[in-house]
Every structure is written in structure tokens, then in C-alpha cells.
Amino acid sequence: MTRQISDSVPAYIREIRLALPPTGAAPDGTIAPELTQLGANENPHGPSPLAVEAARQALAISNRYAEDNGPQLRRELARRHNLPIDQIILGAGATELIYLAARLLLRPGDAGVTSHGSFPLYYIAIRSTGARLIETPLRDYRFDLDAIAQTLSAETKLVFLANPNNPTGTMFAADEFDAFLARVPDHALIVLDEAYCDYVERPDYSRAIDIVKLRGNLLVLRTFSKVYGLAGLRIGYGLGPAAMLNELNKIRGPFNTSGVAQAAALAALDDREHVRHSIDTNNAGLAQIAGGLKELGIRFVPSVANFILAEFGYDTDPLSEELAKRGVIVRPMRALGFPQAIRVSVGTRAENDKFLTVLADVQAPFARRKTKTQTTKR
Ligand SMILES: *Cc1c(COP(=O)(O)O)cnc(C)c1O
């Protein structure tokens, strides 16, 4: 057989399987406007109007390259986080920085660590470098920092932690993280992904930015995709040691974030009302969905983020398909390590209602089948 160029791709890349989320898109790619999209943890209220206006103005001069690495946005972020500007890097979403960190530090023979039951891009980023992926189990749906610390060795160059974790919506406290950090050797970079930090209002939550000022091996990731409602514009940022960001800057593409995205992000930071409204309605939505699930007798993991992991006790692929047929998109969790769960994002009050109503409608036959199989087994 003739060799194809894909045969020249390293086996460790060919072996990666992508699990793309259901979008509810028609075969021609169009998405019906009446679809209830609760599959991707997006902000259901849209972007800030200030961000939209700023993006519109930036769009008018998009024949020009924006200034590389968005100094204006980084200056504002530096001011807000009280860090020097060279400790901030922009990415086309936090995900670009996840991939870049892996590419910078990992080679075959190295090890990258994270938890099973977390964000799939960590696994892909590690495996795409040829490094060994080490996954510890979650404990009570939470990152088990003690188990992760026990895996650390001379080969470990990178650790991915999500706080809050996606898809479980759980968090670890600042004190737990401090105790963990004390056990991490200086040659291993901790990538602490705080994509959902804005939703967390617990007093014992992260003080990671303060630690960035002290430690040479912590990279904190933030994004404009969630509470700021700019997922489609692809912009996020990292806060870390200047020397390491200097190396990252060599391997990222020039102009990796657009001027439109930078302008929108800058304006979004100023719209405190939009952020406040998003957080308040999210809190109400979490309670609404939790209450509805309880009424239906469905177990779920209490969440501090903008989504809830619900456990059904049976394979949820068919259930998710049935929900999608009725216009409600949620995320079946097989690919993320929970074959009997779905993750539902918090939407508007009406969207949450729609989800709960349709779920009540469609779940009964699946649940009955489960009871039957259990009886036959006995
Ligand atoms: C949504 C999400 C991100 C953000 O990704 P972007 O590339 O910024 O859109 C990062 N990490 C986790 C765990 C997420 O769920």
C-alpha cells in the first residue's frame, strides 16, 4: 500500500480521539434559533453591549494587524491583578495557552499529570507532545491534590488543574492548594485553569494571583469565554512567571489574538453591571436546576460554576439525543469519564425551565429500562 502523509504523523497523535460536543446544527451547518443551547457553558445573556460596540469599531480597522500581544489589554489586566505587564500573556482562548504550555515543556519521556474526569483538552495537549499522560482519579468529584502530588517525579514537567473543575463544578480551597504547592518540585509547572473563577463567591476560594507573584512555576489561566460572554471571539490570558512567558511568546503565533477580540475584552472588563447580572442570574439558575433535578429524583453534584453534572445511573447518550431532538442541547459525559451523566449549563430562567420540562418528559422510559435491567440482573 502506498504511504500516506498521515502515516508520517507520530502514532501518539494518530491515537488521539476527539469527542466533539453535539451542537444541534442541521446537516448544512445552520443552527435553529429556537434551540436551547446548554452544552458549552456559555453566558446565556450574550456579550456586554459595550464589548459589541468596541468590537464593531475595531472591526473597521481590521485591514491592519493589531499590535502583537495586545499591550493595551495586558496593561489593563496587569493593573487589575497588580502584576507587571510581562507576567501576562494573551491567548486565542485559554485553550491556546493550554496547548502552548504543553508544547513548551513536554517531550517524549516526560510526564504530564492531571485528573481523570476533567477537561479533555488537558489529555489531548499532553498526549499530542508524545509525553506520558498520568491521570489520578477524582475523589468525591473533586481534584485529589494529594493523589496528584504522589505522582510527581523527575519526569513530571507539567500539571493541569481546573478550579472549579469542568465537568463536575467542584472546587478546592486556597489552603488545600497551598499545601499541594509545597510538595511540587520547581521543575514542574502547575497550570491552574480558573476559567470559571468569576462565578465562585466562596471566601475560601483561590488566591492564586498572589502566589504567581511569589512562585516561578505557576501559570494561572483566565478566559473571556465564560462570564464575559465572548466565547466566539477566542480570547483568554495567562498570568505567570515573566521568564516562562518570554519562552511561550517564542512559540505562539504572532498576532494570535485579534484586535477585535482585544477591544471587546477591554470593554467587557469595564461592564461590571453585565458581569454582576451574569453572576446573579447564574446563582438563581443553579438553584433552579438543582431544585428541578431534586424533584425528578436525579442525583447531581453541587456546583460553584455555571453548569451542573447530573448522574442518571444509566448510559446517557440516548437521553442526550432525545433531548436534542426536542431542541435542548446538553453534554453527554461519556468522553469526559462519566458515561452515566450529563452536564447541563445554566441558561436563562426560561431555558432552565425548558430543560427541566423536556427532561421530565423524556426521561421516564430510560429510567424504567434501567430499573428493568437491574431487576433482571438480580
Ligand atoms: C471553557 C473552558 C476554558 C476556556 O476555554 P477558552 O479557550 O478560553 O474558550 C478553559 N478551561 C476549562 C476547564 C473550560 O471549561
Question: How would you characterize the overall build of this protein?
Answer:
- The protein has 378 residues and is α/β, with parallel strands linked by helices.
- The protein is 40% helix and 15% strand.
- It has 13 helices and 13 strands.
- The protein has helices at residues 11-14, 49-59, 71-81, 94-105, 120-127, 145-151, 174-181, 208-212, 242-251, 259-270, 272-296, 317-325, 349-377; strands spanning 36-37, 88-91, 111-115, 132-136, 156-162, 189-193, 218-223, 236-239, 299-301, 307-311, 328-329, 331-332, 341-345.
- The strands form 3 sheets. Strands 2-8-7-6-5-3-4 form a 7-stranded mixed sheet, sandwiched between helices.
- Strand 12 (331-332) and strand 13 (341-345) form a beta hairpin.
- Helix 2 runs antiparallel to helix 10 and helix 4 (94-105) runs parallel beside helix 5.
- It is globular.
- Residues 41, 93-95, 119, 162, 166, 193, 195, 223, 225-226, 231, 236 line the site of pyridoxal-5'-phosphate.
> What string gives the helices and strands in order?
HEHHEHEHEHEHEHEEHHHEEHEEEH
Oligomeric state of this protein: single chain
Distance between the termini: 52 Å
Q: How much helical structure, as a percent, in the residues?
A: 25-40%
Write down the overall geometry: globular
Give the spatial strand order of the biggest sheet.
2-8-7-6-5-3-4
Give me the secondary-structure category: alpha/beta
What's the average pLDDT? 94
How many β strands by DSSP? Answer: 13
Q: Which consecutive residue ranges, at least 5 long each, have pLDDT under 50?
A: none
Largest sheet: 7 strands, mixed
Q: Helix count, per DSSP?
A: 13
Radius of gyration: 21 Å
Fraction of residues in β-strands = 5-15%
Q: Are any ligands bound, and if so which?
A: pyridoxal-5'-phosphate
